[in-house]
Amino acid sequence: MTSLLLIGNPFGMDGVADAARQRADRVMQAAGIREALDAVPEANFVILFQHWPDEYPADEIRQLLNAAPLVRLMVCQGPWCASFGRTRSTWPAAVCVDETRWLSRLELEFSVLAGNRSPLPWTAGLDEVFAFDQSATELNIPVEN
User: Fold this and answer.
1) CB contact set of 13 (below 8 Å; sequence gap of 6+)
2) pTM exceeds cut of 0.85
3) pLDDT of 84 over the 70 cut
């Protein structure tokens, strides 16, 4: 059973939000991290929508990561976050997904939740993140342009 927690405003990322809602058995929504913390223990998949760098305070990000160490986490980053990984390290690289990979990563994460593949650990290096995301092509998962 997939219990999904969506955090933030999915504006501009509606495709991934809708696709996730359709696959989940239970869906919860929160406006921000602080509002989501109580629901995190009930979720096994969290998708957070980030539209610009520093949209979420570093202390709230740490609280979320500490509250959900075993939860599948996907941070959908909009185009304003393109340089985020080079200039900030508040999120583990393994959970950050740019707009070109949202739907393919979503499919990979649902495959992990179904027990069909090994999860990408939050501590994964960039080479491991790349290999994980490239495995979408092996599964014939369409990759966005």
Assistant:
1) 49, 76, 78, 99, 102
2) yes
3) no
Measuring CA to CA, which residue among 60, 72, 62 is closest to residue 32? 60
Greatest CA separation for the chain: 38
Judge whether 42 and 28 are in contact, CB under 8 Å.
yes
Summarize pLDDT for 18-76 with one digit per residue, the tens.
999 999 999 999 999 999 999 999 999 999 999 998 899 999 999 999 998 999 999 99
Residue 133 makes CB contacts below 8 A (sequence gap 6+) with: 101, 104, 105, 108
Question: Does residue 67 sit in helix, strand or coil?
Answer: helix
Do residues 97 and 77 lie in contact, with contact meaning Cβ atoms separated by under 8 Å?
yes
Helix, strand, or coil (residue 73): strand
Q: Are 53 and 81 in contact (CB under 8 A)?
A: yes
